[in-house]
Specification:
The protein has a single domain, classed as Rossmann fold, CATH 3.40.50. Helix 1 packs across helix 2 and helix 1 packs across helix 3. It is an alpha/beta fold. The protein has a five-stranded parallel sheet. The chain contains six helices and five strands, in the order E-H-H-E-H-H-E-H-H-E-E. The longest helix has 16 residues.
C-alpha cells in the first residue's frame, strides 16, 4: 500500500501540476492500493476551506484513521528523535506511525521531514 502525503496530494488535487500528473501516473502504474491518512485529509480540507475551494475530491479518497496503536508508535518515534537531540513535527510522526503500522510506503517529496523515522519506507 502507498500512503500519499499532503505535499504530493496538493500537487495532484489542488494544483493539478505537471508533477502531480506524474505522481498520479506513478501511483497508478504501481498497481498498489493507495490511501491518505486522516491527518492528511485534515490538512487538505483546511487548505481547501481556507481558499473556498470544492472539497468533494478529497472526501472521496480512502482514508486511514489514527488509532491507539498509531498513537503509541507516534509518541515513541517523536520521543526517540528528541532523545537524539532532533526536533520532529508531531503530525509527521503521526503520519509515519500510521504508515509503518499499515506496512505501507510513504509517498512524499519531504523525505527530510521523515528521516528520523528509521523503520519508515518510502515509495
Amino acid at each position: 500500500m502507498i500512503v500519499v502525503d499532503t505535499d504530493v496530494l496538493i500537487e495532484i488535487l489542488d494544483k493539478k501540476s505537471e508533477f502531480g500528473q506524474k505522481a498520479l501516473s506513478r501511483i497508478k502504474e504501481s498497481m498498489e492500493p493507495f490511501a491518505i491518512t486522516s491527518l492528511t485529509l485534515h490538512e487538505m480540507l483546511y487548505g481547501k476551506i481556507k481558499k473556498a475551494k470544492d472539497i468533494s475530491d478529497a472526501l472521496q479518497l480512502n482514508v486511514l484513521s489514527y488509532t491507539k496503536e498509531d498513537a503509541t508508535l507516534s509518541a515513541s518515534l517523536e520521543y526517540g528523535a528528541e532523545a537524539q537531540g532532533r526536533t520532529v513535527s508531531r503530525i509527521d510522526s503521526m503520519i509515519a506511525a500510521i504508515t509503518i503500522n499499515y506496512g505501507a510506503k510513504l509517498y512524499t517529496n519531504n523525505t527530510k521531514d521523515f528521516k528520523d523515522f528509521e523503520s519508515l519506507k518510502f515509495f
